[in-house]
Amino acid sequence: MNESKMIHALSAIHGTRPFAADGEIFGDMIFTMDSFSPDEDFFNFTPPNMIGHNMAAAVISDLLACGIKGEFLINSWNIDSALPQSFYEECACGIEKVLRHYGLSCIGGDLGSASPWLWSATAGGKITIPAPVRRIASAKVPFDLYATGSFGDANHAAFFKRPMPKIELRPPVPQEALFATDSSGGFLDAIENFRRVNPDLTLRLEYFPIAAAEQLSFPKEFLLIGGVGEYELLYALPQGMKSSDILIGHGDFSGSGVILPNGKPLTQAPPDYRETPPEKWLEETENFYREFFL
Q1: Residue 70 and residue 32: Cα distance in Å, rounded?
Q2: Are residues 288 and 229 in the same domain?
Q3: Which of 211, 214, 236 is CA-nearest to residue 224?
Q4: pLDDT value of residue 1
Q5: By CB count within 10 A, which of 35, 70, 118, 222 is most buried?
Q6: 139-180 residue pLDDT tens
Q7: 45 phi and psi, to 5 degrees?
Q8: Is it the case that residue 4 has pLDDT exceeding 80?
């Protein structure tokens, strides 16, 4: 499945605007929804309480990227009867802890069956700031780009078939942010989110905060290309406005595109792993690395 093409096709039918923001804005309300399964999200080696934590944190992350916490979550479990009830209870406990942290209420949902299991959720609430932060820049002024943490640890865990790392519970991006997104599809996918909706963007990346990892059999930059998300937030502030987060680049709207720390322009999106057989993932990643990182 080519995810980008499918999103454009469905958006054309429903009359929505794809990629404009992490959340869906409707009047004075904002919504987001996502779904998770053990195979697609590499949860097969992760304890159920942590699965619940990460799923809830991932859903709410879209709201945080818009500068908002939200008010409610409604969810649907399609359970696999091969797993005990205690598995789903532990997942639900992990979900509830995240909801309490952000002040959201679970208002119910639906129950069905599937193999493997599938969890879907919608979160949202009233817009509590003058204007939600979008991926599309609200003002075309020079900016500094910040990240809330390091990248690549989720790709590392997926590659070595280990438990997924815990998603940190971050505050919403600053209301003053010019544009923002989360790294739900990995670091370079997040950068592509900015590039695709800001055609006159110039972004000079100066630093990659790559998560500490053991000795790898491949370059550590592979962890930035892969499509498993760590859900860190990336946001731009007007140049000179300080943040306690990690400064990773600078830019403006002079139309030079995205420029990597090695000076090479990033002229295409990272591999679409959803339309690539798993046995080809490493090859696709290596080809992208050789073209843009060497």
Answers
A1: 10
A2: yes
A3: 211
A4: 57
A5: 70
A6: 999 999 999 999 999 999 998 999 999 999 999 999 999 999
A7: -115, 15
A8: no
